[in-house]
Amino acid sequence: MKICFAASSGGHLEQLMMLFPLMNKHDSFILTERTQYNFNSKNLKAYDVTQINRREKTFIIKLFILIIESFVIFFKEKPDAVISTGALATVPICLLAKLFRKKLIFIESFSKISSPTITGRIMYRVADLFLIQWEELKKFYPNAIYGGGIY
What we know:
Layout: E1 2-7, H1 11-17, H2 20-25, E2 27-33, E3 45-49, H3 59-77, E4 81-86, H4 91-99, E5 103-107, H5 118-126, E6 129-132, E7 145-146
Parallel strand pairs: 1-2, 1-4, 2-3, 4-5, 5-6, 6-7
Helix pairs in contact: 3-4, 4-5
């Protein structure tokens, strides 16, 4: 089974890398944002995509580029599943997974204790498995599975 592990840079990526033992057991690759932040991919194949911010004036242009980049990576790698901790830069690869009937697992951010993320609200509707790290989020995601923290 080939798995795409997708996360924005920073804290989202740090959370995702806590799943390294799972990454190591499967044919895996990482998709994250292209930033000045260098991370240790631990010798796993990693792809950098355009960093995007919904408040930027160039949002639509960057979103279009991000969709194309995600499409190319998706068809090059052909993952059987996508596991994501968010955020916005991961939405295209997650939606591609659903469009092509691959499994999608979304893990809501550890930093969100009392309110949902925008990406979480989107992914809750489409994910095959939606995990929360805080029981308090059940009021926003009643069908989510509480898995505890991944730290």
